[in-house]
UniProtKB/TrEMBL annotation:
A Pfam family of this chain: DAO
One of the record's GO molecular function terms: oxidoreductase activity
Alphabetic keyword roster: Oxidoreductase
InterPro entries: FAD-dep_OxRdtase, FAD/NAD-bd_sf
Protein name: FAD-binding oxidoreductase
Length: 379
């Protein structure tokens, strides 16, 4: 094990991972813990935080696990508070717009299938009922002028919206610099060991960092990191591709799950889902062509808007797609936080989850998110 870094004392909490999930937790810990460090790999890391779509989204969350829907609803309700607090502390407007969102549907089959899907989701145990509507074409077009005739209908909820994820990440890190949180890039963790005194030693290329509590928020690396503290987390990353269109005047005030316009006027087209494991993050013409075709059918005015770039990124997903929140059963004080909705859940991570971690125990309400669900014995 490398020697302890002489520059730092034993931190009260070390958060492993400086993306949106780790940053949100670290931001929330400031009011409840003493000294905090954020250990980050650096820009070579596989960062979902810089490759995502930037949705604050409820209506697709929780199918198969009603608790996830409730947890997401809680976060959407807290988002305005988080955005206002970040703006006050850092001067950065994260461009939150929460005017409702749409899932566009093309043809009777998509309408019927999605309606049945939403009704099943809402009937699950653990779901807190919330407002949603099935809109016909005319009703959807009242929210999206110029909506294409191929859009038969849409699912709408008032809780959905968008945020600028790059500005959000910058705001968190700016808050670190003004509130004493130590942000340590190039400190990728390669080993974790419990010390005789009870604290954790985290081995990094820059020396050991020691902390009384640790939060594993390393995204795609959380499977490996979890095993270092006795947590068996099966990961199943999923690749998504995004097409970026040039800036235009503001045309879209109601975002869609597949299409949004950023605060500065550029467009994002996305929602592809590929089970590619940890494969190289590449873009492929067939997927991008499918995205572009559906975007133009949704909003025909985009036919005259040029594509300027494209990228792909890996979604951080546990095997079943749901979040994981757990304290190690064998190494108390070691927590793991994994999800593929780091933007949507940023508010509840900062304002709800972080105080639990600081207090040393997760609420029983979060028990369904434990890794125990992957290891239940069946007979």
């Amino acid at each position: 094990m490398a020697a302890a870094s002489p520059r730092f004392p034993v931190f009260d909490v070390a958060v492993v991972g400086g993306g949106l999930v780790g940053s949100a937790v670290a931001y929330g810990l400031r009011d409840h813990a003493g000294t905090i460090a954020v250990l980050d790999e650096g820009d070579i890391a596989l960062r979902a935080s810089r490759g995502n779509f930037g949705l604050v989204w409820l209506q697709s969350k929780g199918y198969g696990l009603g608790t996830y829907s409730r947890w997401t609803l809680n976060s959407t309700r807290m988002w305005a508070r988080l955005a206002a607090r970040l703006a006050q502390e850092t001067g950065i407007d994260v461009a939150l717009e929460q005017k409702g969102g749409l899932t566009p549907l093309m043809g009777d089959y998509e309408v019927e299938a999605r309606l049945a899907w939403v009704q099943t989701l809402m009937a699950q145990p653990g779901v807190e009922p919330y407002e949603w509507k099935l809109l016909d074409h005319h009703q959807a077009a009242s929210l999206v002028p110029g909506l294409g005739p191929d859009v038969t209908g849409a699912i709408w909820t008032p809780h959905d919206g968008i945020v600028n994820p790059l500005k959000l990440l910058r705001a968190f890190h700016t808050a670190f610099s003004t509130s004493g949180v130590e942000y340590l890039p190039h400190h990728g963790v390669t080993a974790i060991a419990r010390q005789p005194g009870g604290e954790f030693a985290l081995t990094t290329p820059q020396g050991d960092i020691r902390a009384r509590k640790i939060v594993l928020a390393g995204g795609l690396r959380n499977g490996d990191l979890g095993r270092m503290v006795g947590i068996d987390l099966p990961m199943a990353p999923q690749r998504g591709q995004i097409l970026v269109l040039e800036r235009t005047r503001r045309l879209l005030d109601t975002p869609m799950v597949t299409l949004r316009q950023n605060d500065e006027g550029s467009w994002l087209v996305g929602d592809s889902q590929e089970d590619a494991g940890y494969a190289e993050q590449v873009t492929t013409l067939p997927v991008l062509a499918t995205l572009a075709d559906r975007a133009v059918r949704t909003l025909p005015a985009l036919r005259d808007v040029r594509a300027v770039r494209a990228w792909s990124a890996l979604r951080v997903r546990a095997k079943d797609g749901f979040p994981v929140y757990e304290q190690s059963p064998t190494q108390p004080g070691a927590f793991i936080v994994t999800c593929h909705s780091g933007v949507t859940l940023a508010a509840t991570h900062a304002l709800h989850l972080a105080p639990m971690i600081a207090a040393g125990a997760l609420s029983p309400d979060l028990a369904p998110f434990s890794t125990r669900r992957f290891h239940v014995q069946t007979h």
